[in-house]
Write a structure and sequence with these properties.
By secondary structure, this protein is an all-alpha fold. Helices cover 76% and strands 0% of the residues.
């Protein structure tokens, strides 16, 4: 009777640990976190360009906002690239508070724009969404690492991981694209159909050497 209980307990313990370890889910979530952070960094840089080089850029407040946003964008890009290189959640102790602070800042800008100017700042709204995605995923990964190994000693399934990576890229791009397009850099971008219509006289019709 005792041996049966021990065996059953051991089986239940093994099953519980197996259920807790999700190597594929953890790897997919890690990719999602860094994809979102990378996209947020690019949106941050586009917003910073508007602050620094846009109309009224000489105002001290806008210059400070531009520099802070520029540094945040570079930090997000560096963090995501380093994390993808290490294939782990790096600097989580500092990254989570930084993501939370960036989210609060973007939320404040979006809320003030709606209440004062009666308009939605799409770039800040996109950056807010991407930041919250990265924050939620990083928070889940950190919690998994505290409670168990999160499947780090297991091998993720390649097919499922590729499908998850593709889905994460689509979701992140769906949020980031409108934000980049609404920024100053996006508004001044040359439309695809006009790239070949330059001022090079050799490309103009009717020109002969």
């Amino acid at each position: 009777m005792t041996e049966q209980l021990i065996t059953d307990s051991g089986e239940r313990g093994a099953t519980t640990m197996e259920n807790k370890n999700h190597p594929t889910l953890s790897a997919a979530t890690l990719l999602f976190v860094y994809f979102a952070a990378m996209a947020a960094g690019m949106v941050e840089l586009s917003v910073a360009a508007g602050y620094i080089a846009g109309a009224g850029a000489t105002a001290p407040g806008l210059m400070v906002s531009g520099v802070v946003t520029l540094l945040a964008g570079l930090a997000f890009l560096a963090w995501s690239l380093w994390g993808l290189h290490r294939n782990s959640l790096v600097f989580a102790r500092y990254a989570l508070p930084a993501l939370a602070a960036a989210g609060v800042a973007h939320l404040a800008v979006v809320a003030s724009g709606i209440s004062i100017q009666r308009s939605l700042d799409v770039s800040h709204f996109a950056a807010l969404g991407l930041t919250l995605m990265a924050l939620a995923g990083a928070g889940w990964l950190r919690r998994q690492r505290k409670t168990n190994d999160g499947g780090t000693h297991g091998q993720p399934r390649t097919g499922r991981l590729l499908a998850a990576a593709f889905g994460a890229a689509v979701v992140v791009a769906t949020v980031a694209t409108p934000g980049l397009a609404a920024s100053m850099a996006g508004q001044h971008a040359v439309p695809h159909g006009e790239h070949s219509q330059g001022s090079n006289p050799a490309l103009e019709q009717g020109h002969h050497h």
